[in-house]
Each structure stands twice: as C-alpha cells, then as structure tokens.
Amino acid sequence: MFLRVNGVQREIHPAGHETLLRVLREQLGLTGTKESCARGECGACTVLLANGDERARPVYSCLTLAVACEGASVTTIEGLGNGSHPLQQAFVAQDAVQCGFCTPGQIMAAAALLADNPRPDEPAIRAALSGNLCRCGTYPRIVLAVQEAARRMEDARGR
Asked: Which end of the chain lies in a sparser environment, N or C, as judged by fewer CB atoms within 10 Å?
C-alpha cells in the first residue's frame, strides 16, 4: 500500500494490526514521533493526517491503524524541517523543550492549531494542546512558544 509521508510517496507493508506509529518508526525510520503510553493518553505520538483534499488533523499514531491510512498524507515532526520551522525555533527560544520527549507531539498539535487559527489566544492554545501531556510541567513555556511562533509566522506572511 502507499502512503505520502512528509511529501514523499512511500510504499509500506503493514500487518493488519500494526499502528501508524510502528510503521513510521520501524519501517520508515522516522523516530521523531515518540511512543510513550501506547494508549492515546499522552499525545507524544501526534502526527498530522490528511485523507484526500481534507485539511490535515492531529491524530495519535499509536491508535491509528496503518492499513486505514492507505492513500493518506502524513506529516511527522521531521516533515516540518530540521529546526527551521517557526514552532521548532520558538520552542527552543522559550525553553519549552525541557526533556524533549513530548515536544514532537506538542509541536504537531500546535502546527494543526496554527493552520486553522493563525492568531490563537491562550485558551485556544491550551484547548488545542490539551491532549498532549508534558511530564516536566512546561505548559506555561509551551503556550509562550506557540504564541511566539504565531507572531513569527504572521511576520513572515507580512513580508
């Protein structure tokens, strides 16, 4: 079966029970997407998934069967760039990474938010990231990072 991952058409061969997380990490070597709870409770495995022409939405890749993604487009943290995306830069600038384990999922959820709402207020940011847990308790810095990224992205659009 075929799946577009980070803009590249990829052929994958998942078992019927295999999750998108396993395929990304083990078949495609994309280890930026993290596995933590494997139950859809922490958000560390969040990726963006789009079927057809629909807008990409955040999904827990640990709960998503790979076979259900045939023909879909998936964006992982690697697909945002190697530290060049405004969200990645803002997370570093605001010291929102701490241990870094939740960071890829937080950034992917924030990317979906900013695609839908380029100027979110704090309650909107907190709501959009509510499915992503940070064991370091860096939530205030994560919110600041998303706000900074929104400003950076708006400035880039204004140029």
From this structure: C
Decide: pTM greater than 0.85. yes
Q: What fold characterizes domain 81-158?
A: DNA polymerase; domain 1 (1.10.150)
Q: What is the pLDDT of residues 31-64, one digit of tens each?
A: 999 999 999 999 999 999 999 888 999 999 999 9
**DSSP annotation string for the chain:** -EEEETTEEEE----TT-BHHHIIIIIS--TTS--SSSSSSS-TTEEEEE-TTSPPEEEETTTSBGGGGTT-EEE-GGGG-SS-SHHHHHHHHTT--TT-SSHHHHHHHHHHHHHH-SS--HHHHHHHTTT---TT--HHHHHHHHHHHHHHHHHHHH-
